[in-house]
Amino acid sequence: MTTSFPMNAGDGPYSYFKNSHLQREVLDGANRMVRDAIIQKLDIKIMLSSSNTIRIADFGCSVGPNTFIAMQHVVQALKDKLLQVTNSTNNIPEFQIFFNDHVINDFNTLFQSLPIDRSYYAFGVPGTFHGRLFPSRSIHFAHSSCAIHWLSKIPKELLDEKSPAWNKGSIHYICTSNVEVVNSYVAQFEKDMEMLLNASAEEIAEGGMMVLVTPFASYTRLMIFFGSSLMDLVNELVDEADAKTLMINLRAVLEGLIINHFGSEMAEEACARTILKSEDISTWMKANYEKSCQLFVALKRK
Fold it and tell me: Which Gene3D superfamilies does this one have (predicted)?
């Protein structure tokens, strides 16, 4: 069984519920792109030919509130698309939204904070999005934001002491010459993307659509895979990000994983130290973003 590490639960000072502002900025920045995709490309007539219910899935919903904001954007865009096609506000379909995340995700916090004025029926779907979660052709619109960079498992090469990718000697591999480690992660990411897309191809109904939004996976790989529009999102995040806020955000995201590897005492110390180095981290973020842009431009020219 694959070990999973969900975002910090509850609504405390280091919870994901209270510390997911950067992910909210990603959603806000991508909102126009998601809306344009729905308005320009979604075949809503085919979707409604067999049912008066539109079923939407959000993969990697976590505990809120970002998933609710994203889903409200999607529902409103779908309503506007319907109005554009029918020129009528009669017979508005009903909406079902399936909130998906790992089985140990804090669904209690998620559903306790559901918007009271929501215009959809809410359901929870526990399980990994790297495999099938829904019946064939049952989902009309699938969405995921800030989630697909999570791998389904650690690349097996990193656990083999005889492998060139044996993960030893460095806490990170950004500046090392050992490309085998990076290549192992890239290969696993590509396998996971294939599993996700293959599963979704079975689940999404005719005329439906899938939208994936993330600036957090392998940056250059995503630029090649999804296009340069993500550069604008990441540029905005880097310009506006406060390193101290970012470190608290990362604690909400990664604390469970750090505790699993190093224990709670060391995790607490690591989080405290990163806050003290926030100015240095800000400088590093900007420098590495510029390098990523230069690399992407070079790759696009080839």
Answer: Methyltransferase, alpha-helical capping domain, Vaccinia Virus protein VP39
Euclidean distance between CA atoms 56 and 100, whole angstroms? 11
Residue 166 lies in a domain: no
Q: For residue 264, tell me if it sits in a domain.
A: yes
pTM score, whole prediction: 0.81
Instruction: Provide the token pair at 140.
Output: 């009309």
Tokens standing for 173? Answer: 């591999």
Task: Answer whether 154's CB lies under 8 Å from 164's CB.
Answer: no
CA 221 – CA 182 distance, rounded (Å): 12
Residue 250's CATH number: 3.40.50.150
Is residue 285 assigned to a domain? yes
Give per-residue pLDDT as tens, 181-235: 888 888 999 999 999 999 999 999 888 889 888 765 544 444 444 444 444 545 5
15 in a structural domain = no
Distance CA 109, CA 115 (A): 12
Given 3-state DSSP classes, what are the helix, strand and coil percentages for the chain, each rounded to the nearest 5?
A: 55, 15, 35
Determine the Cα–Cα distance for residues 258 and 266; give it in Å rounded to an integer. 8
How many domains are there within the chain? 1
* Cα–Cα distance list, 60 to 168, 177, 189 (Å): 30, 33, 16
- Torsional sign, CA 172, 27, 214, 219: negative
Domain that holds residue 206: 21-159+178-301
- Coil, helix or strand at residue 16: coil
Determine contact, residues 43/207, Cβ cutoff 8 Å.
Answer: yes
| Inter-helix orientation angle 219-226/229-240, to 10° | 140
Judge whether 148 and 156 are in contact, CB under 8 Å.
Answer: no
Whether the Cβ atoms of residue 109 and residue 69 lie closer than 8 Å to each other: no
